From TrEMBL:
InterPro entries: ARM-like, ARM-type_fold, HEAT_Maestro, Maestro_heat-like_prot. Signal peptide: none annotated. Residues 18-264 form the Maestro/Maestro-like HEAT-repeats domain. Gene3D superfamilies: Leucine-rich Repeat Variant (1.25.10.10). This is Maestro heat-like repeat-containing protein family member 1. The gene is MROH1_2. GO terms for cellular component: cytoplasm. It comes from Eudyptes chrysocome.
């Protein structure tokens, strides 16, 4: 019903929205999940109302992501999917105060064993970058925190997760302050284009080490974590990533590398 504009004609929207918001404290997890789906559907049925009630709707989605009684993350998944729908219609001032909290909260889902959680969280992260202008430095830190993961998951076994990573990286590109990297993401990560991963990563690492050589150790440490990944293609991609980083860094910054740690792979 909330997916249809008929709720406006029947002057039911506000009443239904209040009822759905109230259901977020329901003892039944399925009810909480479906309440969030209904609230997210307002983006399709009454997008102009999303602008009016943006702060309330966003608060509901954040509460859903923080649901404490959600062992399989079904409520969080619904919250992330619905939030992605709402973001096209909310006022920027309503999202700005929650931007950092949401970005930090969804980051662990990038490596979830559940592919739908990986996909939804990564798509949502890409959508959040639209609002990063006012918090450029703060959000840039979140992009750097997620960059290795997004690049490695281009080798994800699930095509829908790979597609989500391509989207998120294309969205992150303009916020990274590196024109070469931005162009690479826009040109090579189009949905309809196949990717030669090794060649792509070689060029990405070249741009990373030209623009952010001081990030070398941080990028290496994040990659080391993926040496123990459950996905064989990601396990293989992580040492290749490190190899290309070390190949392209200049001598001055080589001292950042802890060779003992690197050789032991820990």
């Amino acid at each position: 019903l909330l997916n249809s504009n008929v709720v406006n004609d029947l002057i039911l929207l506000e009443t239904m929205m209040d009822n759905m918001t109230g259901r977020q404290k329901d003892a039944c997890m399925l009810v909480r999940m479906l309440a969030l789906r209904g609230l997210g559907n307002i983006a399709s049925g009454s997008p102009e109302k999303v602008r009016k009630h943006g702060a309330k709707l966003l608060a509901s989605m954040v509460n859903g992501m923080d649901d404490k009684d959600d062992p399989h993350n079904l409520v969080a998944l619904e919250a992330m999917s619905s939030l992605s729908k709402l973001l096209d219609h909310v006022e920027e001032r309503d999202i700005q105060s929650m931007l950092l909290h949401i970005a930090i909260r969804i980051r662990p889902f990038f490596d979830s064993e559940q592919p739908d959680l990986r996909q939804s969280s990564i798509v949502l992260f890409g959508n959040l970058t639209k609002f990063s202008e006012g918090n450029c430095e703060v959000f840039f830190e979140q992009i750097l925190n997620g960059l290795v993961t997004l690049l490695l998951h281009l080798q994800d076994p699930k095509p829908e997760v790979v597609k989500a990573c391509k989207f998120a990286l294309r969205m992150c590109g303009p916020n990274m302050g590196c024109e070469g990297l931005c162009d690479m993401f826009l040109n090579h990560l189009r949905e309809d284009r196949s990717l030669h991963y090794g060649e792509f990563m070689n060029n990405v690492c070249k741009h990373l080490m030209q623009s952010y050589p001081e990030m070398l150790n941080r990028l290496i440490l994040t990659n080391l974590f993926y040496f123990k990944s459950n996905w064989v293609d990601i396990r293989a991609a992580a040492p290749m990533f490190i190899g290309f980083l070390v190949l392209h860094v200049d001598e001055e910054h080589c001292q950042q590398v802890d060779l003992d740690q690197l050789i032991s792979g820990e």
